[in-house]
Amino acid sequence: MMGPHWQLNEDGSNCEELVLRGVERFLALSGIPGYKLVTSMAKAHVHAWLNGQSFGVRITYLELEQWVHLFQLLLMNGNQLLWSLQLSWEHIYLSSLGVTDGKEVVDFVRETYLSDVELSELDSFMGGDLYLPGGWPKPFNLRDLTWYSRETTVRQNCMYLEFLGAQYASHQPKISDNVKSRDRELAAGEPRIIYSIDSWTLKKVLFPKALIGSSCAPDAANFENDLASKMLLFAANWTIEQATEEDIQLYLAWFSWFGSRLQQHCPFLLCFLNTLKVEFEHPIWNHISRCRKNLKFLCRLDPDAVPIPMLSSKLIDVAASNDQSKPYSKSLFESLNSVGVLRRSYQQWLVESNDNHTDVSTFTRFLDSLRVLEKKILCEIVGAPSFSVLIQLYTEVIDNHSFFWSGLVSSSDEYLLFSFWSLIKSIKKMHSFFPGEVQVVLVRVPFSYASFFSQIIILVTQ
Question: What are the φ/ψ torsions at residue 276 (nearest 5 degrees)?
């Protein structure tokens, strides 16, 4: 097999940059959390690697692995974070570089790379900040991949979403109230995995000695629910994009299993699962299944040998040389490009149907007719002669629909008027494609808003 840095022999390659990227990946997979901590440790190792060459000492990943292991052991024994980081660095690398030649290098790294990492940055991995990379569950071992390759692959693709869901739940208030119910389950002989323990309680359990003299719990108000929800949605969409026809049921089973454990404190997973189940019954997904089946038959592809995700366009590229595949490739391309707006539409409809706090009585008939128009477009968008134009117009409609709903929820008259005007403008652009449905929507605009828009139009035309 090629060496780990075989690319270094290519002209124009940056030796130090390639080594640094490899070290950063190694640290992240070793469970070191936090971008700043990973970067600082990687730079420290690369500096030792470069200077070791001048001493005739070969610094490898062995030293890096020993450093990570000792650092973790010191933390688990209750030692302070920054002290554990610097002590483990000195112990491992000073013994490898030698006291005579390496002391200057070790001291320089400690003062340059391992002293500017703030304690708040180091301490954040115990609180589980969502924006920090690293510190995620490690990949499964080779035995799992060999014996249960499909199940293991699915679980690995779900790991990041599992991490985000658990972190989201850990920041929700009153999670520690579940301790009593957990104890009752254990006493009844019903052990189960507990994900929803708050981060402060978990920190006290794992590092009791390090908390001596500290009694201030982290401020949960700093946790951004909106940002976390967006990250969960992004991770869930990415996870489903990895699914094939053969393993999609495994993904759905995982969503159901994990979502049921976080339902009380992170209902997103089960809501996303319910949306998926409804979405899969839509004609767009029927087009995807039919076209993929025909393209695989024409290309004689073995799904086990060549697993191609359902939402991947790779199958279109594989079948490009076959003239008989062009009609199926065109339909598949349009269907894949419609899945995004289809999912956003279902999510928007679900938000509206589950809302019990916003007074939408003025817009009830308008929203109902708008939903009829959107469903009509989604059913006929694949195979439409002007698909590229229609998908852009519908994207504008569903975007403005979402903005308008945000205006209703926020109860801001200025924002509501602006978003409603934008929505009406985007709906009118669909008139040439769906004149009957568009006319019904415009007729059901509330009278007060209709008169307002007529005045705006008069002013603009003048």
Answer: -60, -45
